[in-house]
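Researcher: Here's the sequence for the chain we discussed earlier.
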Amino acid sequence: MPPGHRATTLARRNEEDGFSSVWWPSHLMGWHPDSVWTEDLTPLAATQPNPHQYFDPLVMMGAAATHTERIRLGVVVTDLIAKHPAAVAQAALTVDHLSKGRTIVGVGSGERMNVTPYGMDFERPVARLAEGIEVMRLLWEAEGPVDHDGEFFPLRSAVLGLSPYGDTPPIWVAAHGPRMLRLTGRLGDGWLPTKIPVGEYARSREVILQAGREAGRDMEPFTPAMLGYVMLAPDEATLARLASEPLVRFLCMTLPPETFRELGVEPPLPEGGFHNLIPAAVPRAEALRIIDGIPPEVVRSYAFCGTPEQVVEQIRTYEAAGLRHLICWNITPFGDPDLAGWSFQALKEVKSLLEESR
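Model: Thanks. This is the structure I predict for it:
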């Protein structure tokens, strides 16, 4: 979000602090409804006019590439609906050249909130994603014009003359359901779900690896990753306060209905969950109803929560289940903007503790 120059400054600082990667979301619309982006519910509303301030991720990755030397640059994640796979393939190679091979392309089937309000078709998103990945790889690997008899992206004498900087950029897939997990095994170089229960993570990882092996792929280089909310607090009282804040609780509406039920909570959204939600169209009364339906204990289950030491312990359980690359979204400022600076320092401590215990 603005100011733009902060993106390159922070990427360089993350590199200096020893982080392995820095990531940008791909959103036209943010998760929070405008109707609750008000000063009575969040101090952020006093300084940020709306919850939808997002730069184009691949443009910002390119900018950060010119200000860094080692840190990897990723998008978490873009769909292949709002952006044609040929355009994503070209943009990814552009970033790859600017970064000298440090690009990671995170892709997913998309959310309705970033598609239907803008007049685009959200029908059969998984099939569209699968074909889109195939088109990207075809264009990256072709040595001349190619044809592709696709259902969604037919190509006729299509050419992408720009070659990868080195190897083709890895494609990491945001996958949760059985069909998406198998797709990831067949077509992905990495797996990038949002945080799920650790047992489910281990089981899903095995589904992916098995699907890859059945497709004849070498799955040794495959990267099991995860996007995890992180909410840091110096003590239990602060953590309890943060977990009860409205904007933090609303972020948990992205959990699938079955997860709410496993926690003994009735899902605040009907079947289909957040996939059918258009935040900008949610009136205040409905947004408050959703927030009221998400108790603090759901937040504490969904996010990595607590002191740096407690968060490290939680992350270790996922490492034992096969996690190899964790992307941390620090949501602490949604609970208390005054803790923003402290929480990012605490996140550095989390990294240091993880390194010390290896």
